[in-house]
Design brief:
Two copies of one chain form a homodimer.
Chain A: H1 14-21, H2 25-32, H3 40-53, H4 59-66, E1 71-77, H5 83-97, E2 100-106, H6 113-122, E3 128-131, H7 139-147, E4 152-155, E5 166-169, H8 171-185, E6 190-194, H9 200-215, E7 225-227, H10 232-244, E8 251-254, H11 257-269, E9 279-281, H12 287-291, E10 298-300, H13 303-318, E11 327-330, E12 333-335
Parallel strand pairs in A: 1-2, 1-3, 3-4, 4-5, 5-11, 6-7, 6-8, 8-9
Antiparallel strand pairs in A: 10-12
Helix pairs in contact in A: 1-2, 1-3, 5-13, 8-9, 10-11
Chain A binds a DNA duplex through residues 13-15, 23-27, 29-30, 32-33, 37-39, 42, 57-67, 124.
Chain lengths: 347, 347
DNA sequence: GTGAAAGCGCTAACAG
DNA sequence: CTGTTAGCGCTTTCAC
């Protein structure tokens, strides 16, 4: 009678299982790890013992012996509002590959951020890293990734460094297509609210705006491009500045949804009717976009899918399945809702 | 010359540090773990060696030997929209106590959810659990917690079981005070949108609504209490039903902010002006609440603080600092914004 | 197919 | 205050 059967608290170990099944611990290990070379009859016997004893492999023991944690580390800036989707995507992949996710928010202005990240890998808490901007764009972090010999994949990062493992999206192209959409509605006075300068993706969106304007032969008007900071309040501020222009823009394209919500709030407050007098468009398609009124036309950045793909790539990398194409791009798509319409009085 | 100094990839171990500092590995261990009884001079020497060798303690080694993971597991339902605040709160506490957070979303309808959770603890991946409803309210999970001998703290859960480690909030009382606030504005036709029946906290909010109505001698009107499901769309549905009543309610109190946003959207769409013709109030104070227009009057549920407290309690529990008062309550507070006002034509 | 032996890197218990 | 010894529970290596 084992300790377990006597109702004692001691967890059963691989040795208990081996004894009960009448095999060696190595064989139990093989069964646990789904190794092929075990006779079916033996496998069954071991599995029965495992069930009977309610055996569950001890994670630290396995980690120590195998030198793998089966954990991925998700590194992000502490107050990112996008982390939810990314996390969910990463979890989607982890779940199917039997990995766990250790989340590690950090202050991207902290001086020893690279040290902190390195410790996760060097201390064997995680096998690899998933990184999100702006943390992933920091020089110190770049240097760590380039030289530190640690498996990683970035999500939505700079995508400039060659050989970098990354998953990105087509910010620029799709931003241009938003401008085309607005132009097709008849807008000629189109404003743009730029995103935070520390986020490289934001510059790409601005580039896309410029390209779209040019492609549609719409002039970029002085004072119609304003600098925001990605948050709601800066949308309010930028919106106020834009509404003071005369003539006003008929459409505002914002580099993210939070700022678009701010622009809409100030428009409401100023008695500017949406979308009749002002069309507003955002970028990201956060949940808010569908829940404000009028519902926001935006661009769905497939963050969850991107993160899932990133985690899958990372796990492949950890397994040594080297792939040639390590920089992947997932397409974003235009989502038209009620916040955009033809301008009331086309030029 | 050590391997490290030769630029090799092998990570240095406690033995390397001991050798370099001229002490035993046990002394190095003491320094790492901040144990008191080490002479300052020795400590300095060890610390220098650690720096020189870029030594970082191997987590699995320490986990295996100490039988602790220094990880907390955060268990929540996969598509919870509140998890962000909770996660951040838990991380606040973890960070200062040198714990890491392993996140574990699950499908609360899954039959083997208890097994899944048990495995985290039994497999020594985490030392203790932080649980959020509805997962924490499931009978199978309750049973596991009651009998499984695993350290845990629930957040915002049932708070009925005595002896349960929990952090809750005063949903009922504060819901009543929202009614008092609306009544003080002059509202007499107050509607309520109930939350998802699987969430116990939602029933408490409804109870609070009823109590508030009674305390203010306001009648609960037939057809003014409707059943929602916590999500935006159900707010739209419930709002539509309420607006069809005649006379209409002058105020709608919703059991959460998502539903309040839905009510506001359908009001906008129906040309009902907010807050003049209809006041809307929510519960939770999610980021959305401040970003819709008009900004939503709601109740700030201090989820982040609650989670931080829960994690702190859990860590105390893991350290054996038994506390008498294991059920804590953190007060929620009324946040008045622009979505509520005196009714246009008081009865 | 299966097993025996040797660690993985650390801490616990105790000895000094 | 410091060191020695003996594992923690598993995988790895290699032998059979």
């Amino acid at each position: 009678m084992t300790a377990r059967e006597r109702g004692e608290l001691r967890k059963s170990t691989i040795a208990d299982v081996a004894e009960r099944a009448g095999v060696s611990i190595k064989t139990v290990s093989r069964v646990i790890n789904r190794e092929p070379k075990v006779r079916q009859e033996t496998r069954d016997r071991v599995e029965r013992a495992i069930t009977d004893l309610r055996y569950r492999p001890n994670s630290p023991g396995r980690m120590l012996a195998s030198r793998r944690s089966y954990n991925l580390g998700l590194i992000y800036n502490a107050n990112s509002s996008y982390i939810n989707s990314i996390q969910n995507g990463a979890l989607d992949a982890c779940r199917s590959e039997h990995y766990d996710l250790l989340i590690h928010p950090c202050d991207y202005r902290s001086p020893d951020i690279a040290e902190e990240i390195a410790e996760l890998v060097t201390g064997s808490k995680v096998d690899g890293l998933l990184l999100v901007p702006p943390v992933s764009d920091l020089p110190a972090v770049r240097h760590l990734l380039d030289t530190g010999n640690m498996p990683y994949v970035t999500i939505s990062g700079m995508t400039t460094a060659s050989g970098e493992w990354s998953v990105g999206t087509n910010d620029r192209e799709v931003s241009a297509s938003m401008v085309s959409y607005l132009a097709a509605l008849g807008h000629r006075r189109i404003a743009f609210v730029r995103g935070h300068p520390d986020h490289k993706a934001m510059s790409r969106r601005y580039q896309g705006f410029l390209e779209g304007m040019q492609a549609n032969s719409v002039d970029v008007i002085d004072g119609f491009v304003v600098q925001g900071e990605n948050i709601f309040q800066s949308g309010i501020d930028c919106g106020r500045r834009l509404l003071q222009q005369s003539p006003r823009p008929t459409a505002v394209f914002c580099a993210n949804d939070h700022m678009a919500a701010g622009v809409m709030a100030i428009a409401h407050e100023s008695g500017v009717s949406l979308p009749k007098e002002l069309s507003v468009a955002g970028f990201d398609d956060i949940p808010l976009a569908g829940q404000i009124w009028p519902a926001l036309t935006t661009i769905r950045q497939p963050l969850r899918e991107m993160a899932s793909l990133a985690a899958t790539l990372l796990i492949q990398r950890l397994r040594g399945n080297e792939t040639d194409n390590v920089a992947r791009v997932v397409d974003a798509e235009l989502v038209t809702r009620a916040s955009t319409a033809a301008p009331a009085s086309p030029d």
